[in-house]
Amino acid sequence: MKPLNSIRISGQEVLPFVEGGKGISISNGESSGAWSAAGGVGTFSAVNADALDKNGNLIPIIYKGKTRKERHVELVQYSIQGGITQAKIASERSNGQGRLHMNVLWEMAAVEEILHGILEEVSPLIHGVTCGAGMPYKIAQITASYGIYYYPIVSSGRAFRALWKRAYHKFPEWLGAVVYEDPWRAGGHNGLSNSEDPEVPEDPYPRVLELRRVMREFGLGHVPIIMAGGVWYLREWENWIDNPELGPIAFQFGTRPLLTQESPISDAWKKRLLTLKPGDIYLNRFSPTGFYSSAVSNPFLDELKERAVRQVAYSVTPVGDHTEGFPVGARGRLVYLTAHEKEMAEAWTAQGFTEAMRTPDSTLIFVTPEKSNEILTDQINCMGCLSACLFSNWAQNESSSTGRKADPRSFCIQKTLQAISHSEEVDTQLMFAGHAAYHFSDDPFYAGGFIPTVKQLVERIQTGD
Fold first, then answer.
1. How many domains does the chain have?
2. Per-residue pLDDT of the chain (465 residues; tens, 9 = 90+)
3. Distance of alpha carbon 303 from alpha carbon 308, whole angstroms
């Protein structure tokens, strides 16, 4: 294993290790502060972060608004309060070591308002802001106004080219690094384009090399690239280290910090991570963001898969092969199916999936009355956590609607991520993880259920393992 040199990130020499930001209270001040104290770059998430009262107790998120717009305003205020809280905790825990970054998603609701609300209060505590999930053109302008570095997350050189030419070229001095997040291997939401095959992962080396070529074209050969997604054993990436072709490289770890003593996730979640096997992480497209995402395959995702299978196309009038009437809803309004799909629909109904729910794509999905009620209730309770949501049809604009029918094939992402981060529920909720997470079960470091401190993990990573 090559010796590791420090790298300059956000104005300071640090270990080339970055903690990946994970939203809804997963990468918090405790974990990110510990990562910084160990000499790396800690990253707390400002995506609906937990706020604490003066006694250190969790402030529960309770919505009082009767409309989505009213609840949306409350969500923004909770988010700002939580971001400020976690920034202060992270700074205290870091002991002045390493660097502290804050992570946000460009597709989260009111991201600009939340960024300003947090940075106006605690910008001296934050050295950089990472931002992905979309094309964050304005992130450079916002962070530069506070004298803070920005770290765009991209999955291709093409995406960075667009960001640079449209906006970033105006703020070159505040570009701290570019995060290349592998769209096939990273946990959470993934940046796969329509031209890329989700079933055929590409080698990250030529993709990162192309990103470096684009950066050199703009005079950014000295700016680090942070490799994110699929990084576990550093010895497997030895040819990336001090490689003049790639230029300065750091490595981001998003999944491994989940299994540390400082990680705030539940004991049930930590135990589940220790049992993962190859193939247990599922790249899917159920997210209400419209992005692909990677999560542990469990009953939560199984139910979504089954919804998608119990699906038929319909017509409101007889047309082509769609000649067989089928009653839908309490009033039994007729829609028209093919003869074969009517047989399928009747079979599902006989199995108890009696509720036919319409999708925006002129299809019906068949679910139980209990699941139908849950879906409708979650859609009604929407608080507008995304800039646009397929599940509830919320959109952050004057009409507060995407203009499309709410899609019952998706789910309330705010509800499930709050549940998994604040309870012992695991299998019944969305559990994001990177595709290398199965190493928790075969890496000798975790033998016997060992859970390290962040400091112990960082020391282990430095050995190549």
1. 2
2. 888 999 999 999 999 999 999 988 899 999 999 999 999 999 999 999 999 988 889 999 999 999 999 999 999 999 999 999 999 999 999 999 999 999 999 989 899 999 999 999 999 999 999 998 888 889 999 999 999 999 999 999 999 999 999 999 999 999 999 999 999 999 999 988 888 999 899 999 999 999 999 999 999 999 999 999 999 999 999 999 999 999 999 999 999 999 999 999 999 999 999 999 999 999 999 999 999 999 999 999 999 999 999 999 999 999 999 999 999 988 889 999 999 999 999 999 999 999 999 999 999 999 999 999 999 999 999 999 999 999 999 998 877 888 889 999 999 999 999 999 999 999 999 999 999 999 999 999 999 999 999 999 999 999 999
3. 9
Residue numbers of the domain that contains 163: 7-265+441-462
Structural domain contains residue 273: no
Query: Cα separation of 61 and 186, whole Å?
Result: 29
Same domain, 106 and 180: yes
**47 and 159: one domain?**
yes
CA distance to 263, 345, 375, per residue, from 60 (Å):
20, 42, 23
CATH number at residue 127: 3.20.20.70
Residues 6+ apart with CB under 8 A from 171: 140, 141, 144, 150
* Closest C-alpha to 102, from 17, 45, 147: 45
Is pTM, for the whole model, over 0.85? yes
